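User: I've been trying to design a sequence by hand for this structure and keep getting stuck. Would you show me what you'd pick, starting by listing the structure so we're on the same page?

Assistant: Good idea, let's start from the same input. This is the structure you sent:
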């Protein structure tokens, strides 16, 4: 949870650094509950009961588009796709 205890400025700096490291060819594995941090990734895996329950790939999505896809997927995962 790399951004959990950071203020917004430090979070921005860290996510920018991760982006630069990844652009240089390095793989970054990040565990987070932050949709914002996850939306900076190229690939997001959702875990449920210790297993991968869903995989999303960014494709050509912008950060905000990917953020929305992640949010939608979280809602579906948490509600089973049905309204509570």
């Amino acid at each position: 949870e790399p951004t959990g205890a950071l203020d917004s400025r430090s979070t921005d700096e860290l996510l920018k650094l991760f982006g630069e490291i990844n652009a240089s060819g390095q793989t970054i594995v990040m565990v987070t509950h932050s949709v914002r941090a996850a939306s900076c990734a190229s690939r997001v895996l959702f875990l449920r009961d210790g297993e991968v329950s869903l995989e999303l790939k960014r494709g050509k999505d912008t950060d905000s588009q990917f953020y929305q896809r992640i949010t939608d997927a979280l809602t579906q995962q948490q509600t089973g796709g049905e309204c509570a």
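That's my pick for every position. To get oriented when you compare it with your attempt: The longest helix spans residues 63-79. The beta strands are 43-48, 51-57.
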